[in-house]
Amino acid sequence: MKEMDSQSKLSLKLQAYQYLKTKILNCEYRPNEFLNEQKLCAEMGNISRTPMRDALGRLEQEGLITILPKKGLMVSGITEEDVHSMFEMRLLVEPYALRTYGNLIPREQLVAYTELMHHPERIDDFCKSDDDFHELLMSSLPNKYLRSGYDRITGLNTRFRIMTGKVSMINQDQTCEEHLEILNAALSDNWNTAADALQHHLELARDKAEGVIKVIRLW
């Protein structure tokens, strides 16, 4: 009985965490929006505060929630410094992972993405496809500490894209060309060239993102 109660509590903690994180990443809870713990519990069918507080603690550790003394809970905002730091991390980790461990990526997946980049009209959600492509390039990284740090910024990247949806962040044709440069080098087992192409691709994305955040008001 105690084991079942323990599993139930763990399940509620996980459900609360996943529920809140999805809402935050999709910007249903907007950056800098204050949240009410009691209302959050009610939203989830009047769950107790224990699993909710556990979920909020995890989200605070991931940088998605800020707990302000005497003020309450706030969805973390995104600043110019956040965007700069996000790309600094990506530029440090992604090319390194590809250069060092790219040969472990299944070749058939590289071939599949190459075919897809030649036919972008087949892609339903280009942003998701772009995220999946970069995840593939990172998929063989064995260093759990680098991976943990990198995973923390993926949510920031998702929120930033949604928040800037009114501004075209991705030129599909240009992005496909840049992806193909990476893929062609990878399929030739030239991982240094592939990593250099990836670095150039990320630098262009960084410059565009930093330009966008200067001219629009994020919530």
From TrEMBL:
The residue range of the signal peptide is: none
Q: Supply the InterPro entries for this chain.
A: GntR_C, TF_FadR/GntR_C, Tscrpt_reg_HTH_GntR, WH-like_DNA-bd_sf, WH_DNA-bd_sf
Q: Which residues form the HTH gntR-type domain?
A: 10-78
Sorted alphabetically, which keywords does the UniProt record give? Answer: DNA-binding, Transcription, Transcription regulation
- In which domain of life is the source organism classified? Bacteria
- Family matches, as PANTHER family: GLUCONATE OPERON TRANSCRIPTIONAL REPRESSOR, TRANSCRIPTIONAL REGULATOR, GNTR FAMILY
Record-given protein name: GntR family transcriptional regulator
Lineage runs:
Bacteria, Bacillati, Bacillota, Clostridia, Eubacteriales
